[in-house]
Design brief:
single chain; mainly alpha; 2 domains; two-stranded antiparallel ribbon; 12 helices; 6 strands; 4% strand; elongated
């Protein structure tokens, strides 16, 4: 851990403080970028700083309430943060968004639009904040034997790096949010998607923390996260204008399609379908394929020996530039030929396997028998003429 990021003129700059400042600046930049073409600049800055200060107040209030034993006998510690530092992310989010909501209501501005605009910057800010907490050594995880477990000052054994998990999780969330944003979803969708990501993270990562508050043996954070995730997903579903009946029909249709495909595969693999080739013809085809297999192997071996890159003296020979270029070209040509021969060898072995299991001559696409004239010309063919034409047309 690195609680002190660097020192300048004798002043120590903490990792958490530095990352929080960067998060604040980037959050403001992204919020302004998203809103300056639609709203008044004064309203943008007023909304941002009102949400920030309300969030800081709310995060401190929640931290005090959830750690009341630290402040019960010395209430002055509530105000003097240096004496007992601590904030709670979820309290900050609740108070911050409540302040933004009432501000938008007072100014008659679209709250869902402002909430969408702040979501992208907020995810990035939380990501950076979690990295700062990780470097600071806060939010200790429970004991783990996993190889990425880290020692933490004041605690025994290696611990889950929970803040780092959060940072990685919010990086993934940011990527998904940006993809959703490109699709121009309905107003409010990005905000609801952010809440759903937050709820899912709270539900899963809460169980990895060392210190948790329980209710009926269930972590309060995980319970709240599950409710947040469920509620935001339902609201997002409605916001996107989806209908349950139509979605159920689509799902059923897709399931039926998959079952149909699985049935065809099952029939192809497991049904006792034997192609009635005369034994003498099959024997001749098998012998021919085995000869082709041996020839292909010999050709591959010969090409490997001719490859100039396999010459051990080449490594110590200081050849001229034109010689080096010729060797490179020769190597590339041989590799291309070997690649094609490798594909041919795979087709030959596949055909030999089909002869053994009684599937030789059956089209892999439609299941019908391949024309004998086609098999005579291309013994390794796996598609009938019609299916081959369809494949060539589709590209």
């Amino acid at each position: 851990m690195h609680p002190i990021l660097f020192s300048i003129f004798g002043l120590n700059i903490s990792s958490l403080g530095a990352f929080c400042v960067v998060a604040l600046i980037l959050g403001l930049f992204l919020f302004f970028k998203e809103t300056h073409n639609e709203f008044n600049e004064d309203d943008i800055f007023d909304a941002f700083f009102l949400s920030i200060f309300s969030g800081l107040f709310g995060s401190r209030v929640f931290y005090v309430l959830m750690n009341w034993e630290k402040f019960a006998k010395e209430a002055w510690r509530i105000i003097f943060i240096n004496a007992t530092p601590g904030f709670n992310l979820y309290g900050g989010l609740i108070f911050g968004f409540l302040a933004l909501y009432f501000f938008c209501r007072h100014k008659k501005i679209s709250f869902p639009r402002f909430a969408d605009a702040v979501s992208e910057g907020l995810v990035l800010a939380i990501l950076l904040g979690k990295i700062g907490i990780f470097l600071d050594g806060g939010a200790v995880g429970c004991i783990t034997n996993l190889p990425w477990g880290l020692p933490t000052i004041g605690y025994e054994g290696n611990r889950h790096p929970v803040p780092l998990y959060w940072a990685i999780y919010f990086l993934f969330s940011l990527i998904v949010l940006l993809k959703i944003k490109r699709q121009n979803p309905p107003i409010g969708s990005l905000f609801l998607a952010f809440l759903s990501f937050l709820g899912m993270g709270m539900t899963t990562l809460a169980f990895l923390k060392e210190e948790m508050i329980y209710w009926q043996r269930v972590p309060v954070e995980g319970l709240f996260g599950a409710c947040l995730f469920s509620g935001s997903i339902i609201l997002l579903y409605k916001r996107l204008g989806r209908q349950v009946k139509n979605d159920i029909r689509i799902v059923i249709s897709k399931i039926k399609g998959q079952i149909s495909k699985l049935g065809k595969i099952k029939n192809f693999l497991f049904e006792d379908v034997k192609i009635k080739f005369p034994p003498t013809i099959l024997r001749n085809i098998e012998q021919f394929l085995k000869r082709e297999e041996a020839k292909t192997k010999e050709e591959l071996s010969r090409l490997s020996k001719e490859d100039p890159f396999n010459d051990t003296e080449r490594l110590i020979d200081n050849a001229a530039t034109d010689t080096e270029a010729k060797e490179q070209a020769g190597h590339q040509r041989i590799e291309a030929i070997k690649n094609e021969l490798g594909k041919t060898l795979v087709r030959i072995r596949k055909a030999l396997t089909k002869i053994k299991i009684g599937k030789y001559g059956m089209c892999e696409n439609c299941g019908k028998m391949i024309d004998t004239e086609r098999l005579a010309a291309i013994p390794t063919a796996v598609l009938c003429v019609d299916c081959q034409k369809k494949k060539e047309k589709s590209g």
